[in-house]
Write a structure and sequence with these properties.
Strand order of the largest sheet: 1-2
Shape: extended
Structural class: alpha+beta
Strand content: 5-15%
Radius of gyration: 18 Å
CATH class: Alpha Beta
Number of strands: 2
Number of helices: 4
Order of helices and strands: HHEHEH
CATH topology: NADH Oxidase
Largest sheet: 2 strands, antiparallel
Helix content: 25-40%
CATH architecture: 3-Layer(aba) Sandwich
CATH superfamily: NADH Oxidase
């Protein structure tokens, strides 16, 4: 099988849980969020909300509750939440049915 760059990249993906003690610039964060919003999805829906956690006390609570201690370390913390309620409200407001999503 001849692998293209995208497949090769995915096959070499690694999870990193030790981050540098630096913050991303506002421009970089905006670019990353724009990319996430333009990511292809079924039926062209972005069924998620993004929360950027910057408060160290909240990060510590999330790390403790989730038992993922690395969340309280360096780097940025973004939480992606599946938001089916939003699409249900938008669909209802447009007079449409969610049956097509099934």
């Amino acid at each position: 099988m001849d692998l293209n760059d995208t497949l090769r990249h995915q096959l070499h993906h690694r999870s990193i849980r030790q981050f540098k003690p630096q913050h991303l610039s506002s421009a970089t964060i905006r670019t990353l969020l724009d990319v996430a919003q333009h990511t292809a999805s079924s039926m062209y829906l972005q069924l998620f909300s993004v929360i950027h956690i910057i408060n160290p006390e909240i990060r510590a609570q999330i790390a403790k509750i989730s038992t993922q201690t690395y969340l309280n370390g360096n780097g940025e913390l973004f939480i992606f939440i599946a938001d089916l309620n939003r699409v249900a409200k938008l669909t209802a407001a447009a007079g449409q049915s969610l049956d097509r999503l099934g």
